[in-house]
Amino acid sequence: MEKIDVAVMMKSKTSAAQKLADLFDHFEKPVIPVQEGLEKPWLFRIWDTNQKFFVLLNQTLVAAPQDSNSTKFEPALMAVVPNKATKQPDEQTYPIFLGLKDGNHVLSCIESGGQPQLQLAEENAMDLYNKNQEFKNFTFFCHTSESTCSFESSAFLNWYISASTEANKPIGLSHKGGREITTFYFEKEE
To answer: pTM here?
Structure first.
């Protein structure tokens, strides 16, 4: 497994906002008759500010260091497509669907035990995109800054995708400002 140079990825000259603007522009181009790339999502690596990557482990999305003392994890490539049916609140916020590279699973927010929960649902991000509906449970507002972003649930406002400060714990939802990490870096897979 090739080790990813996080320092090189973090020095990317493209801001988080520009990456998302490029994604939205790409998907807005007219299809004549089928434009290459519009039938598949863009793939991104996502990692938190403590350098833990999104990793699929036993059908659970966790935040894990790229390599630990005993195990090396391959970062999960996350499929990202815009949700064009949901209004973009401002120039730094983008409504998106987040899924796995396999094309058969997307992140979804549901209420369980009186609290929002993050789960992997058996859906296809491109199918959601092509249906052109709000799909609040599957939509995240990607708030961008210069080099980082946070992912707010559309169904449960003020709840953000979060990673534990401990390694190898499941990705979940939490409020900003708590113990959980809600700020992430991401890099488009070329």
So the answer is: 0.83
